[in-house]
Design a protein that fits this description.
The chain is of the alpha/beta class. Helix content is 39%, strand content 16%. It is built from 22 helices and 18 strands. The strands form 3 sheets. It has a 6-stranded parallel β-sheet with strand order 2-1-3-4-6-5, with helices on both faces. It has a 6-stranded parallel β-sheet with strand order 9-8-7-10-11-12, sandwiched between helices. Strands 14-13-15-16-18-17 form a 6-stranded parallel β-sheet, sandwiched between helices. α21 links the parallel β17 and β18. The chain is globular, with a radius of gyration of 24 Å. The termini are far apart. The structure holds thiamine diphosphate (TPP) and magnesium ion. The site of magnesium ion has 8 residues, from α17.
């Protein structure tokens, strides 16, 4: 065995089935080792997409996704994906090539210090300097990537180490990671706090979406019957169809869901991660906050929990429910606000206007997506509308990035979702700005034979920034652009494309696209006048109403 073959064997030992990547000449020994292994090489058209795909694999399965690139330019193209996985707590392994370390036959050609570049963007970044270290390094990389708080790990494999004879060293067998359960004293303290609350409210944050947690969390909510809201990344962690869902905090204050948040005397924040835009702002006079998490909360100006319940969240919640079940007559106090909040949020969702309103887009998408269908958002204005208005009923069926909040991840993340769940409908929702950042991956999606619909919201602008520019009183400048004809663009990739031409045309266009199979691009013109009308004017009027 050479170093690369040993690395591939160690990856296989970790259960890796595919590697997303775009190799260079420094990876050729590794590519040859992959060719002769059972691990599939999924070649993308840009390294950033490979990283987004690997990160989404980590997010959806809990097992690190793996990506591979060359040195220098290829490795640097992984940086945004690394940050996306680091802030989003997605387990991922990045393997990059490098010129030889034992001799420098090409001097400094293409050489940059990738390990140093990756150090602040990962949980661990390491150069492999000898094949002997590979079994331990790979095991350590997977342990670190997977362990709470999950995230990316970088390994650099220089080409001469890849080719170096490695012998047949034994591999290190992985074992499950078990997080300790919260201590009895902490459980008793948390239970006492909840038992005396008059108006309790649960908040589900980003870590509530860990794939292994869905059942225990749903069970806890059902047993204690305390109403809940979620952050954007906590969306979908519990059945949203339950009568306890109060809304999603897509804004930090003054949205309708804040009517409940502002009245709560106790917020049980499960899995909140302060990488997210704050779902509410803690202040000196606010409610008591109990933080429930795998790890203690980071203390911030806007988030400083009064007490914590730290440990494996699922089993800890089960123990907490045993202390609370049937003893919370006031659990549902804030439920009286629910009907009003949800009615305000869904107002005018059926309006027949063309171009379509964002509320109508969300409404129609929900109609064509089955309960287990997966919607993957890129980043733009529509993310706020989907976070506020889209109801989820199955865990991890709305994937969005409210941490790095990078544009360009929508299509690659949907491709991984479609690979992992070939039997489910998968929809990427992108703005015309974000779509064009990684639209070349349409070719990858079609080469992989995926069934996937890509909805492009067309406003010929970086709409979100244009809206903020206007909201902040700046003149309209620098945010508009032209677009290709997206139908022709799709056809150029040998796939189907359609354009929504009427107010009622979106749902049928999506339905036809899903029924037709393969990769299909649907473009829909969107009218963002609703941003200011609802998110500024209407919410300001509502705040005044509440004060008065
Ligand atoms: C990679 C990256 N660049 C820039 C931004 C800042 N940004 C956030 S939203 C946005 C506009 C997105 O435009 P588009 O994709 O067309 O969506 P829209 O808001 O128009 O619906 C920009 C530029 C970002 N989040 N990520
Ligand atoms: Mg746009």
């Amino acid at each position: 065995m050479n170093g690369a073959e040993l690395l591939v064997a160690a990856l296989k030992n970790e259960g890796v089935k595919q590697i997303f990547g775009l190799p260079g000449e420094e990876n050729l020994v590794m590519v040859e080792a992959l060719r002769r292994s059972s691990i599939k090489l999924v070649v993308t058209r840009h390294e950033q997409a490979a990283a987004f795909m690997a990160a989404t694999h980590g997010r959806l399965t809990g097992e690190p996704g793996v990506c591979l690139t060359t040195l220098g330019p290829g490795a640097l193209n992984l940086t945004t994906g690394a940050a996306h996985a680091l802030l989003g707590a997605m387990p991922m392994i990045m393997i990059t090539g490098q010129k030889g370390v034992l001799s420098r036959k090409q001097a400094r050609f293409q050489v940059v210090d990738v390990v140093s570049t990756m150090t602040p963007l990962t949980k661990m970044a390491h150069q492999i300097v000898s094949p002997t270290t590979i079994p331990a390094l790979v095991r350590e990389a997977f342990r670190v990537a997977q362990q709470e708080r999950p995230g990316p790990v970088h390994l650099e494999l220089p080409e001469d180490i890849a080719a170096e004879p490695a012998g047949e060293p034994p591999l290190i067998q992985p074992h499950p990671i078990e997080v300790p359960v919260a201590q009895t004293a902490a459980l008793d303290r948390a239970a006492a706090l909840i038992l005396k609350a008059e108006r309790p409210l649960i908040m589900l944050g980003a870590a509530a979406s860990r794939p292994c947690l869905a059942d225990a969390l749903s069970d806890f909510i059902k047993r204690v019957e305390i109403p809940f809201f979620n952050t954007q990344m906590g969306k979908g962690s519990v059945s949203g169809g339950s009568g306890l869902y109060m809304g999603t905090a897509a804004l930090s204050e003054r949205d309708y869901v804040h009517d409940a948040i502002d009245r709560a005397d106790l917020i049980i924040a499960i899995g909140h991660d302060t990488v997210e835009k704050p779902p509410f702002l803690m202040g000196p006079n606010g409610p008591t906050v109990l933080h429930v998490g795998y790890l203690p909360a980071t203390v911030e100006e806007v988030y400083f929990p009064h007490t914590e319940l730290i440990g494996d969240v699922g089993p800890s919640l089960t123990l907490l429910a045993q202390r609370l079940e049937g003893k919370l007559p006031k659990a549902g106090t804030l439920l009286s606000l629910r009907a009003e909040i949800l009615a305000r949020i869904t107002a005018r969702a059926n309006e027949s206007r063309y171009p379509l309103t964002p509320q109508r887009v969300v409404h129609d998408v929900r109609q064509v997506m089955p309960e287990d269908g997966i919607v993957c958002l890129d980043n733009g204005m529509y993310k706020i509308w989907f976070a506020r208005n889209y109801r989820t009923r199955v865990a991890n069926t709305l994937l969005l990035d409210n941490a790095l909040a990078t544009m360009g991840a929508g299509l690659p993340s949907a491709m991984t979702a479609a690979m992992l769940h070939p039997g489910r409908r998968v929809l990427a929702v992108c703005g015309d700005g974000g779509f064009m950042m990684n639209s070349q991956e349409l070719e990858t999606a079609s080469r992989l034979g995926l069934n996937l619909v890509v909805l492009v919201l067309q406003d010929d602008a970086f709409g979100m920034i244009r809206w903020k520019q206007a909201a902040d009183g700046f003149p309209d400048f620098g945010m508009t652009f032209g677009n290709p004809d997206f139908v022709t663009y799709a056809r150029a990739y040998h796939m189907k494309g359609s354009r929504v031409e009427t107010a009622d045309g979106l749902a049928p266009a999506l339905e036809a696209a899903f029924t037709g199979g393969g990769v299909h691009v649907v473009s829909v013109p969107v009218d963002y006048a609703e941003n200011s009308r609802v998110l500024i004017d209407e919410l300001q009027a509502h705040a005044k109403e509440r004060r008065g």
